[in-house]
Amino acid sequence: MSFIDWKYPFFLAAVAVLYWQLPLRGRHWLLLVASYAFYASWDPRFGALLLCSTTVDFFCTLALVGERRPLRHVLLASSTPFAWVSLCHLGSMLAPPDQASSLVAPPLAWVATAALPLLFTLAYPILWRLESNRRRLGFLWLSIGTNLGVLAFFKYFNFFANSLSNALSFSGIQAGWTLPTIILPIAISFYTFQSISYAVDVYKGRSNPARSFVLFAAYLAFFPQLISGPIERVGKFLPQFEIARIWRIDHLHIGLRLLLIGCFKKVVVADSCAILPNYAFDPATPLNWSWALLGSIAFAFQIYGDFSGYTDMAIGSARLLGIELSQNFRFPYLARGPSEFWQRWHITLSSWFRDYVYIPLGGNRHGMTRTLLNLWISMLLAGLWHGAAWNFVLWGAWHAAILSLYRLPGLARMESGGTGWTQHFAVPLMWIWTLIGWVLFRSGDLTAIARWFNGISTMDVTGALPSAGAWAWLSIHVLPLFAWQLACRRHGCESGLIHWPWPVRGVAYTLVIAAIASAAAGEQEFIYFQF
Amino acid sequence: METPPTFRAWITRSFLVVAGVLIIAEGSARIFFGRSFEGRFDYGYHPNAGFDDSTRGSVRLFRAGGRRFHPQTYAADPAPGVSRILVAGDSVPRGPSLAASYAKQLEDMLNSAGAPAEVWNLAVPGYGARRIQITALRALRYKPSLLVLHLNDSNEFEDEREYRRSQDNKGWHPRTWLMKSLVFRRLHEAKTERIFWEWLPEKVREKSGLSDVDAEVAASAKGETLDRWNARVHEITRETIAKAMAQGTSVLLITQRSVVKDSSGQLSFVESRLEEFAASQTNRHVGMLSMRSVLQAENLSEMFADGSHLRAAGHTRIAQAIRQKLIELEPRSAVR
Questions:
Q1: In whole angstroms, how far apart are CA A319 and each of A75, A408, A448?
Q2: For a disulfide at A81, which of A48, A88, A182, B198, Cβ 3.0-4.6 Å?
Q3: What share of chain A is helix, strand, coil (3-state, %, to 5)?
Q4: What is the pLDDT of residues B133-187, one digit of tens each?
């Protein structure tokens, strides 16, 4: 069930109405049930994986603050993934034959979920026997290791095994192994990162852990931001779960407004723009400079509309429940340089890498060489986070290169505002870098990247003519968004229509509704769901 | 104690603007454009769409909803001594214009030959057997003396697709609630009707699966699908003939033949099984005319505008052939 599925408004409305009627504990239970139901609507089996992360993180983070729970609690909680897999299996027996197969867990899932209570119940008391500092470190690494292990196996196992196989065959050795088919669980990159930051923040004493398992499970699986973020920090996010929020009318107004704007960005801008890169990046398309440029610009708006639209809907949905999520986008295409771009694009991910990778590696505290090294490591990992493919690594490397380049005094001055003529070129220049980055991101492989650069270099003037209609198509879908953003820019909030006079707001909303209803493209899946 | 928000707080002024505009738009659509919206979302499966006989004694054929009749107005009952002929079919009999269509040319020929007649052009682009039947059966109430059915077996894909569309938002499933609004439905249909799509090059549309061409070609490539479509054309045409005859209306079947360029660049006819079927239906009251037999002696490039559609000259030849056929058709056809 995606945010643009017809079922979602009914689901959200039912949860919101019920939520405000319940006492605090009831709300936690409601959010837990609703979130797991929402997650299970994609693939029920992967709920077990989420429960694994939840269980391990919950007990490990409590241990970080010296709180030991009875072993029977540990055993009971760590048995929930196995119970979930069993429940799915039971469901497969009752489900119609065409749906039954999607409920049957593979043997490995049975083994892993059965092993978890045994191993964790064994490891838990052993770690408690260690001296305080080593114990804390042990529990921290158990938590991080579990999350990274899950992520590495489901997302990167085949990628690295394939890469190794290719490297071996390049040196004349045939690997000869057959790789298993591993389905990437939806949302895995998001909730594992949220779990890791949770454990680290508790370890560093920046936040207190959740004391209730239900509360923590609801926090980690919170359905508006579970699938594609924003990646929340415990310090801001968890306290909102711990107190009984009071209903305010602006929860409704802001929530609905964000849902509407997010839907517009996704359905009207992203899905309509998607048609052009789908064509331009197709290997069968004869690519000239006009189509190469059009495809990359359209993709820039597609990915922006898609992801920021999703984020707006996530923030709007959470707001209906009285919970405020972090801002994830702030006019990224108006950035004057790469540092500013990453302060405006997928803000919660870039700040995650800054706080949990770049700064722990030393940040910029140990000279230029070390700073650049840390920067490159962070950006390569950020690229890899997006997908297990070399084009994402290349995308990360490209941004690392630009970030390094902007350390040069002239460019750094330009990014910080510039003087004279340079200030007018900062945004267009950054646009060019960003577009090249998106080409690397969108192209599936190196051949496709080479094809794009070959296409853009064919400076044939007549090449623009066949795509004139497509340029017009792009303009009608992007310019309204652009105009909207420019109007909102001075208030610093991407969806900030609140400062407009009410008749203008009313007309704007009506046009947005009409545009959504008539959105000319077919529904496309959210891009970031694959990450 | 928290005081509950007042009604004023719940409903913002901008919300009132949105609600007001939408309510006014919906009300206007229903009040002022109700007639043209009739059958709008039935895509040819609404029996009354496009027929307006609300004005006493006359029937007006107009563009309504999915039906795009050439605008025509006739008396509801045929005048004494005037033969009434109805031509039902797809874009081929519809013609490049009403005046150039063989229906209108036939009317002119008959009238100038001293045989007063009115020939209604009821052809609508893309109509297959099922929708032609709906049009023909609705038109039979205007007491025609002859029904001309232009048979073509290449529109069944579109008939099926349009039927699915007509059923998409029927019922009261929550998914369809918003589509109960004429305004929302009309805006939503802009998507499927590709109002903006024309801006995009055809290849882009095809790549995004937005063109029906690929889907139709894929469907047409399957032997069993073609057999099913042919069987349906036969069955429905048989039914239509039976209903027309039961009302005392003679039927003339015109079988479509498309053309294709051969390796030397010459046009030649594509094989079709329609003639065999039409021949099997002929009797004293049911005649048959094959486009192939009418046009084979002609220069096909002067007759055809593309693979299927005729130029005005092609329509003239068909009209002449029908005129000739009417003379042979006995006994019920009043037209001589």
A1: 35, 42, 41
A2: A48
A3: 75, 0, 25
A4: 999 999 999 999 999 999 988 888 888 888 888 887 788 888 788 888 888 888 8
Q: Across the interface, which of A248, A469, A514 has its CB nearest the CB of B201?
A: A469
The C-alpha angle with vertex B161 and arms to B156 and B163, in degrees rounded to 5, equals 95
User: Within 10 A of A142 (CB to CB), how many other CB atoms are there?
Assistant: 20
Catalytic hit among A28, A346, A386, A399:
A386
Name the domain boundary from A219, A243, A267.
Answer: A243
Decide: helix, strand or coil at residue B50.
coil
Identify the domain boundary among A243, A259, A289: A243
Asked whether residue B82 is assigned to any structural domain, the reply reads yes
Structural contact between residues A274 and A302, judged by C-beta atoms closer than 8 angstroms? yes
Do A439 and A358 share a structural domain?
Answer: yes
Residue A417 belongs to some domain of the structure: yes
Locate tokens 């003939």: which residue? B241
Residues of chain B found within 8 Å of residue A7, distances taken between Cβ atoms:
174
Inter-chain touch B201–A285, beta carbons under 8 Å: no
3-state SS class at B19: helix
Q: Pairing mode, if any, of strands B83-88 and B146-151?
A: parallel
From the list A359, A333, A377, A310, the residue with the least C-alpha distance to A529 is A310
The interface predicted TM-score of the complex, written ipTM, equals: 0.73
Q: A506 lies in which domain range?
A: 250-530
Mutate to test the interface with A, among B1, B6, B18 (most CBs of A within 10 A): B18
Residue A90 in any domain: the answer is yes
Q: Which two tokens stand for residue A158?
A: 């085949």
Scan for tokens 């996010």, then name that residue: A237
Considering the domain architecture, whether residues A474 and A399 belong to the same structural domain is answered as: yes
Closest of A315, A325, A329 to residue A258, by C-alpha: A315
The answer to whether A307 and A527 are in contact (CB under 8 A) is: yes
- Kindly report, residue by residue over B226-267, the tens digit of the pLDDT: 888 889 999 999 999 999 999 999 999 999 998 998 888 888
Q: Tokens 């420019």 map to which residue?
A: A486
By DSSP bridging, strand B267-269 and strand B286-290 are unpaired
- The identity of residue B293, as a single letter, is S
- Verify that A237 and A254 share a domain, yes or no: no
